[in-house]
Every structure is written in structure tokens, then in C-alpha cells.
Amino acid sequence: MYKTQMEAAKKGIVTKEMLYVSKNENIEMDILLEEIANGRLIIPGNVLHSNIQPRAIGEKASTKVNVNLGISKDCIDKNIELSKAKKAIELNVDAIMDLSCWGDTREFRKKLVELSPVMIGTVPMYDMIGNSGKALINLTKEDFFKCVLDHAKDGIDFMTIHAGLNRKTAERVKNNKRLTNIVSRGGSLLFAWMEMTGNENPFYEYYDEFLDIMREYDVTISLGDGCRPGSLYDATDASQIEELITLGELTKRAWAKDVSVMVEGPGHIPLNEVKTNIILAKKLLHNAPFYVLGPLVTDIAPGYDHITSAIGGAVAAQNGADFLCYVTPAEHLRLPDEKDMIEGIMAVKIAAHAGDVARGFKGAIDKDHRMSRARAELDWEKMINLSIDPYKSKKYRGNSQPEIEETCTMCGEMCAIKNMNNILNGEKVTI
Q1: How far apart are CA 177 and CA 182, in angstroms?
Q2: In whole angstroms, what is the distance from residue 202 CA to residue 210 CA?
Q3: Are the C-beta atoms of residues 32 and 22 closer than 8 Å to each other?
Q4: Nearest to 47 by CA among 215, 161, 207, 159
Q5: DSSP H or E segment with residue 405
Q6: What is the DSSP letter of 184?
Q7: Topology of domain 44-358, CATH
Q8: pLDDT value, residue 1
Q9: Residues with Cβ < 8 Å from 227, sequence gap 6 or more?
Q10: CA separation for the pair 216, 8 (Å, rounded)
Q11: Are 264 and 160 in contact, with CB atoms under 8 Å apart?
Q12: 224 alpha-carbon distance from chain centroid
């Protein structure tokens, strides 16, 4: 009957995944079918990921958030990363990207899919480089595609493929000097491979074969931005725009084969250029869901880049970004630990919610109104339960007890809310 969610939507077939999303995200079914059929909304979900609880990504859905984790040569403990994954799921993230690049990545990947009710993404290029046993220059098109097929068979829901960094874009990079060159790990490896072999990017040259694999397992393509800017200096430059144009063309080719697509975006962008970048990208990408890393709005905050990212992420979400990838305090410094991950998750969730409120997404501001009512009533238990991180709120409240129970230790008997409630109720305010 159908192979993919997009094909089903084009045929007017309502899938169990659509029913789940319609109910849990409050999207009317006729709107959901139209948005999926037109590529503006996606429900990533590999047919082999049996325990997934589907999420929608697109302009008719709330802004979703992603967490990165995975094993590397320097940090190879799978149990630590699996523990981080479980914590991320507990904190209700929408997706986890496994960026593993060393060791028994397949065993780790299978365990991650098995335990995760949220969508799982990967970058096969990392896995192939770390585990092929070959030097980069000796990799073949067959190596590339075998790795993609392995990930599809393991139940991965979306894959990042840097198909837009072709030889034409590579020439643009060389002819337009950047301050930080290519900062995408997958993009830099592909660039080096093309330069050393003289060959075209196999994901671009054999894109139709790649689409056939994605269609067979209903894997969503996440078209990676190999030329995303790694500094404010490089933002919105010729290389970035050249790749965006190519990614727009590849998006339409995927849609023609009923394969869902989202496209990845920057990167490091000055705050005043974030809106421009989102609008431009949405136009060139035919309103496909847009997935951004940050964006980071300054280059000078190592150790605080979760804040830098949240600032850019809120503005991006307000202006049309559909999916935010978290950034942790460890960005640019090291692999994040669980504490870093939690800080990154909270920052990106705040950014996503702020963006939803700013764009008037249905029901978003109601959460804020419920919190405000609890504050007006000095209902501390309700305030803690309504907060984005109840654990931290409860800890802070418990660590500093006021003399007057209904107040806090900042204002005490001068509490504005307590005194206003009293005076408006006809009571005297005595301090």
C-alpha cells in the first residue's frame, strides 16, 4: 500500500504514526496529511524502530529539540553514553543523535534504538571513517553505501548526509577564503576525500541509490550543512548559500521518491542575521523542516555556549526553525558529561518554548499563564511542578528557607505579591 509516511499522506492514507501525532500534538488530521504530503512536516520513524513514540517536526508542530551523544576514541565507555541517553529520555527530549565514531558503534547503536522511545539519528560518515579499517583516501562508494544500509537496518530514524557539499561547492569554498574553513566534521572529511581522490561526493553523484535505501526503511534524510559557518566572520557567505541552493534541489528529488527530508542549518550567526538566515533557508529549501545547531550568536563564550546557543535558538524558532540541536557548556572544549548534557537540554528547551510563544504557537503561552497564576497565589509546590526543571527548582527552594513560609529569602516580608494580595483583600500591610 505504501512505503513511507509521505507516500501514505499523498494517497490520503492515515497511518498509526499520524494518529499518534494528531492526538498527542493536537494537529487536525486533514492538516497533518497535507503538511506531510507537501514535505513541510515530517514524522521520522524507521519501520524497524518498533518502540518509537512518533514526533512531528514542521511549522504546524511545536519546536522540537535534539541531544547529541556517542562514543569516541578518547571517551569510549558505552555505559556512560547509554546512561546519558536514558537521562535525556527522562528529561523528555524529542530526539537523540548518536555521533559515535570509534569502537563497537553498531552494538551501541542497536542498544540505543532498543531502549529509546524517541527518534534516533546518526551520521554514517563518522561511523565509516572510524570502523572501515581503511585510510580515508581508499574509501569507495560501496563503503559509503554499506554503512548507510547498516544504519537503516539497525532502525535509525534519520541520517545526516552531507550530499550538498559537491565538487562545485568545494570550489566555492576554495575560492572564497573563510576564517574557520569547514567546521563540519562530516563535511571536512568529504571535502578531504574529494580533494585527494578527485572524485565527486558519492552521496551527491549516486543520490538516487541513496534515496532507494531511505525509502525502503522509511528513514528521514537530514541534509547536512557541510558549509555551515563556524564563526561569525563566515556567516551567510558564498559557500553557505551555494550549498543551500544544492540542498533545495536535493530536497525536491527526495520528495519525488516519497522520502521525507529535513535540512540542517548554521552554525555561528550574528544575532542580527539569524532571522535573515532562517527566512532565506526556508525559501531556498521550499519550506522543508529546518534543523539548526544553535545558532551560536557569539564566538567568545566557551564554557557558556549553551547560553550563546539558546539566544540564537529562540530567535531561530521564532522565525521558522523547526528543530533545535542542543549545545552544552562543553562545546568547543570536550565531550560533554551528563551534567553538561542536562544544562544543554534545559537551555535548548527554554529556547524552543520561547520561540513557540513568540510565534504564537497554539497553547504555548498557556504554560506561562499557569505558572504566573501559581506565583500570584504564592503556591510554591505548583510553581515547582510547573517549572521546566522541577528538580532544580525544588533544590533551590529547599536550600534557603525564609522566615515567612509563603515568601522567599530574597524579599521576605517585603514580598510584593504577598503585600499586594493583602492590600487588595482589604488587609493591612505591616512591615
Answers
A1: 11
A2: 9
A3: yes
A4: 215
A5: none
A6: -
A7: TIM Barrel (3.20.20)
A8: 87
A9: 164, 165, 169, 173, 182, 184, 187, 239, 240, 242, 243
A10: 14
A11: yes
A12: 12
The CA distance from 316 to 304, in Å, is: 19
Q: How far apart are CA 237 and CA 273, in angstroms?
A: 12
The pLDDT assigned to 131 comes to 82
User: CA distances (Å), 367 to each of 41, 298, 356, 389, 394, in order?
Assistant: 24, 30, 11, 14, 18
Residue 248, helix vs strand vs coil? helix
pLDDT tens figures, 277-325: 999 999 999 999 999 999 999 999 999 999 999 999 999 999 999 999 9
Question: Which of 1, 5, 68, 19 has its CA nearest to residue 261?
Answer: 5
Question: Residue 271 and residue 276: Cα distance in Å, rounded?
Answer: 10
Query: Grid coordinates in use for 402?
Result: 525564609
Give residue-wise pLDDT tens across range 23-46.
999 999 999 999 999 999 999 999
CB-count burial class (<10 Å; 0-12, 13-18, 19+) for 75:
middle
Kindly list the domain boundaries of the chain, sorted by start residue. Answer: 44-358, 365-424
Q: How far apart are the first and last CA of the chain?
A: 74
Kindly give the pairing relationship between strand 57-58 and strand 41-42: antiparallel
DSSP secondary structure string for all residues of 353-366: HHHHHHTT-TTHHH
Q: Which residues of 26-58 are buried (b: 16+ CB within 10 A; e: fewer)?
A: ebeeeebbebbbbbbbbbbbbebbeebebbbbb
378-384 own/partner pairs: CB under 8 Å, 24+ apart: 378/406, 378/407, 378/415, 378/417, 378/418, 378/421, 380/406
Cβ neighbours around 166 below 10 Å, total: 23
- Residue 109 contacts residue 98 (beta carbons within 8 Å): yes
Question: How many Å apart are CA 7 and CA 123, to the nearest integer?
Answer: 25
Could you please report the per-residue DSSP string of 93-149? -SEEEE---SSSHHHHHHHHHHH-SSEEEE-HHHHHHHHS-S-GGG--HHHHHHHHH
> H/E element holding 293?
strand 290-293
* Residue 306: C-alpha distances to residues 34, 66, 91, 201 (Å): 35, 13, 17, 33
Cell numbers placing 60: 504546524
**Phi, psi for 149 (deg, rounded to 5):** -65, -40
